[in-house]
Amino acid sequence: MLVAFTKPQLPWDGDSGALNVVIETPKGSRNKYAYDQEQGQFELSKVLPKGMIFPFDFGFVPGTVGADGDALDVLVLMADPTFAGCRVRCRLIGVIVAEQKTKKGKVIRNDRLVAVANEWEGLKDTTNIKHLSPHFIESIEHFFVSYHALDGHTFKPIAYHGNKKAEKLIREGILRFQQQQEQSATPK
User: Label partner for 16 (CA 20 to 30 A): which of 22, 88, 95, 150?
Assistant: First the structure.
């Protein structure tokens, strides 16, 4: 399936004010997909080992750039998987703040935003990550620690914060995106 974004994608939905998340990898998948901005399509980036799957849909906030240089990552809580390229309107509930150490030893921030799909009734009253059980959050952190270990990276969760801190990270990500766009538009 070829998916090309024909117009700029925005972090926030103009009508509802919800967070827009573009799903890269659906819940339950062993296949990890990534959106290739230059090609305008999704590509298979890795296959997880047998028995390891994505616990929820995983995607990115369009129109943002995180500290790691990629769009901000989001884990979308909902009952059933969607598909790569699906836009899901979400309620942002928090962030897992983390550092990632690359194979070369470089340490970068690689936070994981956490959101709930607006259309899912299962957590309709959940507005903050602190409403989730500590065990639930630990299981999410464990997935990302194990997932990054496959590539020889160390993923270290530092803390988790509610939606105010997560919104601040999105504002910073929008600024980085705008700066990146301005730099690429400037003749060299």
Answer: 95
